[in-house]
């Protein structure tokens, strides 16, 4: 079975550009999470969805960040405009209700 | 105070050693607890859940002390393949998890 799929795996962009990260959760999972990981701050929850509905977006750093989940098999995290301090690894994870979260391989974002 | 705190290490141990990691959490209403493992440049993966009675999975033993808000992970007979970062994780209700920054373990031959 396929795990959580994320694209792109690596993204290098210039400050001010729009960045879109994509995630396909495991089929049948109804919760989806977006995390950001840096050396300084560790793994931080940005937003999570349950049954395609955003439940908690209190971790989204500012208005430049937005996330959508138009259907059960796809989600996007968008940064517009991007800044160098957004450089991090962005993970998507999915789970069935309260059970184990399965993480995707991550997108390594570098903003120059 | 951070919600989940861990000693970042690194812990450098020889093969065969026993090593213990500790973690404290700030919210007494926390409901469930886990240890995740993250290899270098990889995603986190669930290692084991932590139950109030303590639980063991092979060489790994996890303990929970709710009164002290303290979680531990013991690894016996360390292997080279145990080298990784171990993340203490707390669920405060609902589906969202709170991750500690992780403790890095390096096992050498």
Describe what this molecule looks like in 3D.
The complex is a heterodimer of chains A (112) and B (109). Chain A is mostly beta strands. Chain A has no helices and 11 strands. In chain A, strands 2, 4, 5, 6, 9, 10 and 11 form a 7-stranded mixed β-sheet that branches. In chain A, strand 5 and strand 6 form a beta hairpin. The radius of gyration of chain A is 13 Å and the shape is globular. Chain A starts with a strand and ends with a strand. The mean pLDDT of chain A is 94. Chain B is globular. In chain B, strands 2, 4, 5, 9, 10 and 11 form a 6-stranded mixed β-sheet that branches. Chain B contains no helices and 11 strands. Helix content of chain B is 0%, strand content 55%. Chain B is an all-beta fold. Classes of the chains: A mainly beta (112), B mainly beta (109). The A-B interface holds A 31, 33, 35, 41-45, 48, 50, 55-56, 91, 95, 97-98, 100-101, 103-106 and B 32, 42-46, 87, 91, 94-102.
How would the blueprint of this fold be written?
The complex is a heterodimer of chains A (112) and B (109).
Chain A: E1 5-7, E2 10-13, E3 19-24, E4 31-38, E5 42-50, E6 53-56, E7 65-71, E8 74-79, E9 88-95, E10 102-103, E11 107-111
Parallel strand pairs in A: 2-11
Antiparallel strand pairs in A: 1-3, 3-8, 4-5, 4-9, 5-6, 7-8, 9-10, 9-11
Chain B: E1 4-6, E2 11-14, E3 19-25, E4 32-38, E5 44-50, E6 55-57, E7 60-65, E8 70-75, E9 84-91, E10 97-99, E11 103-108
Parallel strand pairs in B: 2-11
Antiparallel strand pairs in B: 1-3, 3-8, 4-5, 4-9, 6-7, 7-8, 9-10, 9-11
